[in-house]
Amino acid sequence: MASPIEDRLDLAIRQVGSVILGKERAIRLALSCLLARGHLLIEDLPGMGKTTLAHALAHSLGLHYQRIQFTSDLLPADILGAAVYERQRETFVFHPGPIFAQLILADEINRATPKTQSALLEAMEEGQVTIEGETRPLPEPFFVIATQNPAYQIGTFPLPESQLDRFLMRIELGYPDAQAERALLEGEDRREVLARLPVAMTPAQLQEAQARVNGVHVAPPLLDYVQALLGFSRQSNRFRGGLSPRAGLGLLRAARAWALLHRRAHVLPEDVQAVLTAVVSHRLHPGEDSLEQSSAELVHQLLTAVALPA
Amino acid sequence: MKYWSRKQKPKRDQSGAPPVEPLTLPALLWLQAALALAVAPHVWELPVWLTAVFYGIAAWRGFIALRARQLPPRGLVLIVAVLAGGAVFVDFRTLFGRDAGVALLVAMTACKLLETRGLRDGVVLVFLGYLLVMSNLLYSQEILLVAYLLAVVLLMLAAQVLIHRQHAGFKALAPLRLTGKMALQAIPVMLILFVLFPRIPGPLWGLPRDAYKGRTGLSEEMTPGTVSELSKSDDVAFRARFTGSIPPPDQLYWRGPVLWNFDGRRWSSGDKAPRTTPVPFTPEGEALEYTVILEPSNRIWLFALDLPAILPARSGMTPSFQLLRQEPVNEVYRYEMRSYPRYRTGDLEAAERNRGLWLPRSGNPRARELVAEWRARNLQPDAVVRAALALFREQAFYYTLNPPLLGSNSVDEFLFRTRQGFCEHYASAFVFLMRSAGVPARVVTGYQGGERNTFGDYLIVRQSDAHAWAEVWLEERGWVRVDPTAAVAPNRIQQGLYAAVADTEDLPFLIRRGDSRWLRQLAMGWDSLNNSWNEWILAYGPDRQKEFLSGLGFGPVDWADMTVAMTVALGGFSLVVAGLRWRDQGSRDPVTRAWRRFCARLARRGLTRGAHEGPLAFAERVAGSRPELAESVREIGRLYAVLRYGPVVSPTEVRMLQRLVREFRA
Questions:
Q1: Position B8 pLDDT exceeds 80
Q2: Structural domains in chain A?
Q3: What is the pLDDT of residues B381-397, one digit of tens each?
């Protein structure tokens, strides 16, 4: 009894999957993030398809798309826009910046200065920008995909923890497997494939889907489980500082979106587990006992340590 | 599609042989390790060639398994089996009895290894392994060996678990953890069986004749050299725990066989048949109450201090006050005793007097001459005793463990030529002199003294405490103990063997008092542990069992009562465990209950749900490893997920879940 919305979501996943080969899980995560009205951070090396993913998503979902390449000399006004004096009209006319789009790709966000970064992040959080005293709403839906090179690269300003927290998910794409890579090498130019993609759903349908995420049922045992996860992250000395309430809300929202994508009207522990790494890995920090561990290992420990409530 | 279910018998292939479910490598390696360890204690008794054959074959089998080579053809295995069996027969001249039987078992286990392919062979080997473990107990039941065998049983159990759950995907040491848990759970059952299983006097079935060979101890006869040979052994003969304090050494004469007959060189028993009531005598002074824990000796003798006044169960007493049990002591045997160190025995019957004076017609002429001299001086019996003791004391007699050999006139040679002897020489010569002088006398063998263990406050009597002394019959007093050794070497009686012989004589380690204090302390602690083991575990025989159960307030119990008690105790224990498990699993929520039942059923097949594993993920995993179950497992997982995490609980779906779980067969 799949309603058209779910069919359209599936179609979108298939379409994006035909551009980004062998990365269905990452695509589903990205779409869940969008459905949950969160913003996405993709962290990976250059050339892994971050930009292509963002482009394909925008295209499939029929979203107005803008790309901002972050550089060290980028200024806040370059993102938000500025009021420019027009001689003919003898007045200041606001020239909106690239942020006034439905899907923003903030490429290499960690190359810009903290000041510029925070201009974007504030806009993400508020859903509006205030320029020269005037508040202007951002379009609906509004979705930011930021990409970042791993922080150890030269000439970068790593996002501080508080800013990282504004992204609902952080994912990595990783190298494609051999089969996908072969198909990629054999196939035609990705840009051409992209250009041919039809629109899978309208922005209005996307908003409807977003509204339906809130309707996905969450049973008390599942809330028990989410609370157990949060509690463990706070009590265990494997982590420095536990997960915040915002992280808990985000986890639940993402799990709901994931369940919807999988045509379920209720959230299962499996849904929580599926989005857990993407939602919490950038919010968990190793405690003194586990300094050597990667964030993925940390999340795995959290996942395996917490039993499902009986 | 269900193309295979457990209820169907596997079809036979064309050749007619049932298809073999092969043993996995870990199962085989665990099994091999357990078997090798089960055979290890036998290495002391097995012929060297058999040890080499067994471990050689085991190593070969291990190599075959590790390198995935072909097993040898059946013909070859058959030849090896026949050769091994033949070799055992040639070596032992029989296939029966303890030693040959164990050798045959080891040889055939090795052959079985060579043809072990499948699960069934593995099971057979496991049970051969348990048999091998038990066979070790035919040789020794010492505490260390038992601990070792328990460890081997755990390993064997782990191998068994691995064999039966080959595809459960155990990680390295996980089977051991599981069997450890199982063993812990079995402890209450073990205790119930140990305490309550009806014990039957005597062996349950006839053990082979050679089962008890090779035990050291006193013998029925005494020739010069028998006791001194025994003195070189530090084996424990028995231990004794006194109700009061341990009496002084000159009262510690542990009475054994009494020897009447002398042929000029050898003393032999000639005692009369035992009676079932204590032989009467007139006690003087206080009684000694004590418990003796006797080591297996394969003899019927029980040892008691002079003179025993009561009889342990199923035993009798000879007219010479020796205690005899009805059947040989082949287990650790514990009995309570009461003795009177001061006593007066009754009159001497004519027949007994004759036996107490009997000597060969000829032989040992010089001794007879000496006695003739005493007779000429018309000495009274007690003066004769004094004269003989004075002879030992005043002439240059030596007390030694290594006396010169004596010929047929042993008394003469000893008294007038060598003058070096151990207690049997003195006792023999003394009794000979007494009898020649017309004083009824006899030789008593047994043990004298013992070592106090400060840890447990009991007395350890070793084979090295073996002793021989004399008894003479005097008017008015009856049988009187005379220890000629005390005249020569008073230290032997007061302080034990070590004090009495020269440092140069080779004594076993534990008897040498000069060894480091620390080591002795350790040895005493260890002996105390062994004594507890003996008293509480090994000596828990039929008598002790009855005593114990009666002591608990059950009154007199027989084996039928015990069987009932055992059944009730075992049943009660099982009910308690089942109740705990049931409470653990019981939940008011029918959905949760059905799901737990389902998970438990799969867990028994080695598919355990991880604590964090969600229902769909678990169902997928099970479906992956057991494709024939995929359909039902997925359906159960889906239903449970909907019912537990979905918005509404529909009674129809609950019933469906319950039905599916009920019908589910993993």
A1: no
A2: 4-206 (3.40.50.300), 214-305 (1.10.8.80)
A3: 888 898 888 888 888 88
Query: Would you call B433 helix, strand, or coil by DSSP?
Result: helix
Contact residues on chain A for B615, CB-CB shorter than 8 A: 268-270
Using CB atoms, pick whichever of A222, A270, A307 lies closest to residue B617: A270
Distances (CA, A) of B537 to B143, B195, B368: 10, 10, 54
Interface of A with B in 36-55 (CB under 8 A): none
Partner-chain residue, chosen from A222, A303, A306, that has the shortest CB–CB distance to B645: A222
Q: How far apart are CA B467 and CA B490, in angstroms?
A: 13
**In which element (H, E) is residue B125 found?**
helix B119-135
Q: Is B592 on the interface with A (CB under 8 A)?
A: yes
Q: Does B641 touch chain A (CB under 8 A)?
A: yes
Q: What are phi and psi of A21, to 5 degrees?
A: -80, 140
* A residues 259-288 lying closer than 8 A (beta carbon) to B: 265-270, 273
Residues 6+ apart with CB under 8 A from B456: B241, B528, B531, B532
- Interface test with chain B among A270, A276, A277, A299, by most B beta carbons within 10 Å: A270
Question: Cβ atoms within 10 A of the Cβ of B393, count?
Answer: 14
- The sign one gets for the Cα dihedral A7, A8, A11, A17 is negative
Q: What average pLDDT does chain A have?
A: 85
Among B620, B645, B649, the strongest candidate for a mutation testing the A interface, having the largest count of A CBs within 10 A, is B645
Nearest to A308 among B612, B642, B646 (CB): B612
Distance, in Å, from the CA atom of B61 to the CA atom of B69, rounded to the nearest integer, reads 9
What string of H, E and C letters represents the secondary structure of chain A? Answer: CCCHHHHHHHHHHHHHHHHCCCCHHHHHHHHHHHHCCCCEEEECCCCCCHHHHHHHHHHHCCCCEEEEECCCCCCHHHHHEEEEEECCCCEEEEEECCCCCCEEEEECHHHCCHHHHHHHHHHHHHCEEEECCEEEECCCCCEEEEEECCCCCCCCCCCCHHHHCCCCEEECCCCCCHHHHHHHHHCCCHHHHHHHCCCCCCHHHHHHHHHHHCCCECCHHHHHHHHHHHHHHHHCCCECCCCCHHHHHHHHHHHHHHHHHCCCCECCHHHHHHHHHHHHCCCCCECHHHCCCCHHHHHHHHHHHCCCCC
Long-range contacts of the stretch B620-625 (C-beta < 8 A, 24+): B625/B167
The answer to whether B505 touches B400, Cβ cutoff 8 Å, is yes
Q: Is the pLDDT of residue B415 over 70?
A: yes
**Residues 175-234, chain A: which have Cβ within 8 Å of B?**
217, 219, 221-222
The CA distance from B22 to B28, in Å, is 10
CA B91, B93, B99, B101 torsion-angle sign: positive
Chain A nearest C-alpha distance from B613 (Å): 7
Contacts of B610 in chain A (CB under 8 A): 304
Quote the CA–CA distance of B431 and A34 in Å, as a whole number.
114
ipTM of the complex as predicted: 0.85
Backbone angles phi, psi at A109, to 5 degrees: -60, -25
Q: Give the range with max mean pLDDT: A289-298, B271-280, B337-346, B393-402.
A: B337-346
A295 within 8 A of A287, measured Cβ to Cβ: no
Say whether B645 and A308 touch across the interface (CB within 8 A): no
The residue behind tokens 């705990």 is B580
Strands B451-453 and B458-462 turn out to be antiparallel
> What does the DSSP 8-state code read for residue B22?
B
Cα B461 from Cα B463, distance rounded (Å)? 7
Beta-carbon separation of A266 and B587 below 8 A: no
HSE on the CB side for B270, CA within 13 Å?
A: 18
What confidence tier does B9 reach under pLDDT thresholds 50, 70, 90?
Answer: very low
